[in-house]
Every structure is written in structure tokens, then in C-alpha cells.
Amino acid sequence: MSEIPTFKQIQKAYLKIRDKVHRTAVLKSQKVNKRAGGELFFKCENFQKVGAFKFRGATHAVGELPEEKAQNGVATHSSGNHAQAVALAAKQRGIPAHIVMPENAPKVKVHAVRDYGADITFSKSTQEARESTLETVIDDTGAAFIHPYNDPNIIMGQGSAAIELLEDQPDLDIILGPVGGGGLISGTAIAASGFSPDTKVIGVEPEVANDAYLSFKTGERHPIQSTDTVADGLRTSLSELTFSCIQEHVDDIVTVSEHEIIDSMRFIWERMKIIIEPSSAVPAAAAFNDKVNIENRKVGIIISGGNMDLDTLPWQNFEN
């Protein structure tokens, strides 16, 4: 297993990529604060290039590849945001990108990956199918694998979002972030531990895809048992690396229901007038539904992305 990245490494990664990524806005809303009972600061990575925080990690990881490893391009598997991020990072470096996407990936994300010039191979939606298909693609192309989260360079890049958030709002009591494979929450927690040690970092994930919650509570890594969540970006299991990061630096993990995710997503659309995807609504749902005590506290929330298929909004056919 790779070593857990350090705060200094995340700082260095940020210096390398900050001219290539957007410094995204931190937004507030009185209506949102009133509902939550605390003061919320939203780090809006839905305004990042490719519409998600994933561009930070992909830019760093692709940029760190030695020339001899990069010459055949890069490859990865992803339901969408990491796919777009790797595709654009590869395009900017001038190398090919080969992306394995599950057949149920949102159309908006598939179209975006194609727009960035990547080659797409579809697979079944299970983790095993994605990984086996990727192995075939790498055998055929010789491309370098850019893992969505089990890569120190990815984690270092993702941590840059928390550095910006804490520079803009240094007195946060808590940071809430979504948990899928664990790259974002790992980078966030490591960055916070060095930049603002008193700030607690809490991960949030869907109840129906609660592998990180079970792993954190039991101290043993649990594979994901269900991908049947509206939060399509959180349908992956922790890796050994991200689990180790979480064990060392994350203070807690809580879960939210599908109804809470969709209700929170719609509330943010309506009140803040910003487009967020379901995965981004997961940490907000924890704040809105008393999963974390935020009363009279300052809370940073990582809005991880905003890539939505506007023809299939989750509240249109959702039953409580």
C-alpha cells in the first residue's frame, strides 16, 4: 500500500496545480443557515473545470507521470466526474485518454467525456466489471492507470479544495464532505489536520451504500454491498489507502437516507440557485437532518460537483 500523503505534500501539489484549476467560490445563504441551525459555507466545486473537484486530483496525477509512462496515454474507470477530469487533464497534456464507464453512467457525463476527446468503453456497473474491463483496455493500449482515488497524487490534488476553503474561512468548526472511494475526504482531512487542527472533518455517505460508515465503525474495511443510490458518484468502495487516511485523520462518518439526499438537493437548487448533483447534497443532508451537531457552529461543506442530467431529475419520480 502507498504511504498516506502528508500536509506538506498537499501544499506542494496545490502550488503545482493552482494555475490550472479554478479557485472556486465559497457561498452562503441565510435561508440555508436558518434551516440548518448553523452557519454553512459551501465550497462550490460544481464551478470547477469539468464541473467537479475531480479535476484537481486528475490534473496533479496526470501531471506527475514521467514522460515514458505518459506516452501511451492514460486510462481509468469512472461513473463520470473522474472520467471527465482525466479526459481533460490528458487533453491538456496532449496525450490520449481511455475511459471505462458503467453502462448506467449519467448521459450528461458520458457526453462530456466524449467532448474532451477520450475513448470510452462501457462495462457492467459492478466494481468487478469496471476493473476487469479496464485491465483489457490497459493491455490493449499500454496506457497508465489513473485510479479514481487509490493514488497518493490524486488525494494530494483533492486536498487543495480544503486548503482554499480554509484560507477563505479559517475559523471553521467542522468540514462535511461526501464519501465514495474516499479520495476527497482523505485529502480534505489531511489538509485540515495541517491547516486547522481544531477543525473536525466528518464524512457523509448514503445509508444504502454505507461501506465507509461500516468500515470506520468496525475498524475493518467493508466492500460496498449496494450501488442502489441516487448519489451516483458515491457507488464505490474505499481502498486500503483511503481507509487508512480516514482512520488516521477523519473524526466521524455518518449516513443519510435517499429521501434526505433528494430533499436537500432540491432545497439547495431552489434557495441558493445553484446546480448540484446528488452526491453533493449528501453532506448538506447531514446538516439539515441533525446527523451532526452544528448548532451555532461554522461548518464548511464540500459541494463535490454539479453534473446533472436535466432530463432525469431525481425528485420527479421519487416516492418517500
Automatic annotation (TrEMBL):
Keywords: Lyase, Magnesium, Pyridoxal phosphate
GO MF entry, a single one: serine racemase activity
InterPro entries per the UniProt record, alphabetical: Ser/Thr_deHydtase_PyrdxlP-BS (IPR000634), TrpB-like_PALP (IPR001926), TrpB-like_PALP_sf (IPR036052)
Taxonomic superkingdom: Bacteria
Keyword Transport assigned: no
Pfam families in alphabetical order: PALP
SUPFAM superfamilies attached to this UniProt entry: Tryptophan synthase beta subunit-like PLP-dependent enzymes
Keyword hit for Nucleotidyltransferase: no
Cofactor: Mg(2+); Mn(2+); Ca(2+); pyridoxal 5'-phosphate
Signal peptide, first to last residue: none
GO biological process: D-serine biosynthetic process
Domain Tryptophan synthase beta chain-like PALP: 18-305
PANTHER family: SERINE / THREONINE RACEMASE FAMILY MEMBER, SERINE RACEMASE
Family label: Belongs to the serine/threonine dehydratase family.
Name of this chain's protein: Serine dehydratase
Organism field: Fodinibius salipaludis
